Amino acid sequence: MKYPLLLLLLGLISCGPDKEKADLLLYNARIYTVDDAFSTASSLAVRDGKFVAVGDWEELSARFEADSLVDAGGRTLVPGLIDAHCHFFGLGAKTFQVDLTGTGSFEEVLQRVTRFYETHKPDFIFGTGWDQNDWEQKDFPNKEELDRLFPQLAVVLERIDGHAMLVNQKALDLAGIRPDTPVEGGEIGKENGRLTGILIDKPMEHIWAVMPPPTPENTVKALKAAEKTCLDYGLTTVNDAGLGLADIALVDSLQKAGELRIRMYAMVSNTPENLDHFLEQGPLKTDRLNVRSFKVYADGALGSRGAALKAPYTDLPGHFGAMVTPVSAIESTAARIANSGFQMNTHAIGDSANAVVLRAYRKVLGNKPDRRWKIEHAQVVSPEDIPLFGEDIIPSIQPTHATSDMYWAEDRLGKDRVQHAYSYQSLLEQVGAVALGTDFPVEGVSPFHTFYAAVARKDLQGYPEGGFRAGEALNREDALRGMTRWAAWSNFEEGEKGSIEVGKLADFVILSDDILRVPERAIPGITAEAVYIAGEKVR
Asked: If you ran DSSP here, which 8-state letter would residue 313 be given?
C-alpha cells in the first residue's frame, strides 16, 4: 500500500474514538534505533517530548492520531547526536576572538591579529587556533613581532590545543611573569635568559587571571551562537569539559527560560571552590542539564610537547612533558570524589599520565559499583595499561585527533611508541564501549567528521590511502553507538537518551544520507537536515 493512500485513509478515520493522541507522527524513514539489537523501523510517535511508539507505519497509523505528520521522504533518522567531549563555552567565545585556525605561517597569524585590531579596536586582544605543526617553520614563535606591533596593548594567542600560548611583553607585565618566575606543571619559554612569550600549561594561569572577562551580554550571545552551530550539525547533547559555578548557573537559567534548547552534560572544573560546593550540594539534574562530574587535568597536549611520557620525546631528547596536576593531588582528589556521587573525568594524553590516572582510579574505586569514571582523550596508552580500563573506567576519545595528529605524532613518539597511540578499537575491545567526541573548538564541530575519522582513519582529503593505523578503526555501527548510546551511558543517561525507544526523550536527527551505507568518501559531506529535541523541531 502506498503512503499517499495511507494518509488519505488516516485522514478519513482520524477522529476514530479508539485512537491515542500523539503530538507528532513521523513516517517513511529508515530509522536506526541504536537499541540493544540495533533494530530498524520506519515510523515513530511522540507525545509530551518522549517516544511513545516506534515501528512500522501501518501499526502506528492505526493506533495514533496527531496534529503534526512528518514525511521523512525515505531519509535516514538516528538518535540525537551527543558530543562526549567538547568546549561549548569555548566555541561560543570564538565569536569575539581572533580566529587563527588554519594559518599557514606565523606571518599569517600576525596579519589576522592586525586586521582584527584595525576592525574592532579592542582593549585586549585574544586569539586562538594557531598550530606551528602546520607551518614550514615548526618551532614555537616568539613575541618580538607582537611587541613591535602592539607595545602598549596586551596580546594573548592561544595554541589550538589550549595547552600553550604566545603572549607579548605587555601581557607578561600585566601577569607579573618574569624570567625568574617559579614554574610548576609546565614551562615558561626562555632563550638566553630572556622570555620568548611562550607559556605551556600551568604558567598560563597567570595570564587567565588578568584577562578581562566578557560582558554578560556577550556571553549570552556567544552561547546562542555556539548552540546554533551545534544544532546545525545534529548535536542535541554536548558534554562541556570544564565549567565553573557561574557558567553552570547561566546555562541553567537560559535553559529554563527557553533561550537555550540544547542539552548539556557539565564537567565541573577542578578548583577547590568548585569541589567544596558540589561535593556538599551533590549532583544537579534537570531535564536539560546534568552536573555530576569533575574535570581534572593530568598533563598537557602532545602537539605542544606537554603530554607526560614514560620515555623522552623522540624529537626533543631529555624532555618528558609534565604532569599539570601532581600525582599526589590526583590520588587525593580521586579519593575524595570516590566518596561522592560524582564521576572523575581526567584529561590524560601521554602514556605516563594515563598510567598515573588509571592506577589512581583503580586504587580508590575498588569494589564500588557502577562508577563509570572517564579518561578524557586516552591518546597514548601502553599495552600493559590497557587492561586497567573497564566498565568503571571508560575511554572518552576524539577520533579527529588521530587524523589531525598523524602528520607529526611519529616525530614526537617514534615508530614503536606511536603504535600505542589512538588505539580506539583496542580500547573498545577492552571496555565494550567508547564515548566519542570532538574536543571542539580544538577540532571542528562536525560529528560526521568524527564518524569518518573513526571508521576511515583518514583526513578529509582521503590521506593516507589505507588509513592511519587502520587496525584501530571502528566499524560504522560502533561509531554510531559511540556518538549516541554509549555516550549517553557514559553520562549515566542511558535511561533517557542515546537510542530511539519507547519512554526515552524524543531527540533525533534526519540525515541527508544513510550514514551506515554511503560510500566511505561521502561520509564527511552528510548533513543534518532536521533536528528535534523533545519532539520539537529546533532546526
From this structure: B
Q: For residue 258, with 0-12 CB atoms within 10 Å meaning exposed, 13-18 middle and 19 or more buried, which class applies?
A: exposed
How far apart CA 82 and CA 165 sit, in angstroms, is: 30
DSSP string, 375-429: EEE--B--TTTGGG-BTTEEEEE-HHHHHHHTTTHHHHHHHHHGGGBS-HHHHHH
**Cell digits of residue 56:** 512500522
6-51 residue pLDDT tens: 454 455 444 556 899 999 999 999 999 999 999 999 999 999 999 9
Distance CA 208, CA 126 (A): 11
The verdict on residue 150 lying in a domain is: yes
470 and 347 within one domain: yes
Question: In total, how many domains does the chain have?
Answer: 3
For 219, list phi and psi in degrees, rounded to 5: -65, -45
Asked if residue 131 and residue 180 are part of one domain, the reply reads yes
> Is residue 104 a part of any domain in this protein?
no
Q: How far is CA 202 from CA 98, 294, 327, 357, in A?
A: 23, 18, 15, 18
| Dihedral sign from CA coordinates of 128, 133, 135, 139 | positive
Spatial contact of 214 and 126, defined as CB atoms under 8 Å apart: no
The model's pLDDT over 494-503, given as tens digits with 9 standing for 90+, comes to 999 999 999 9
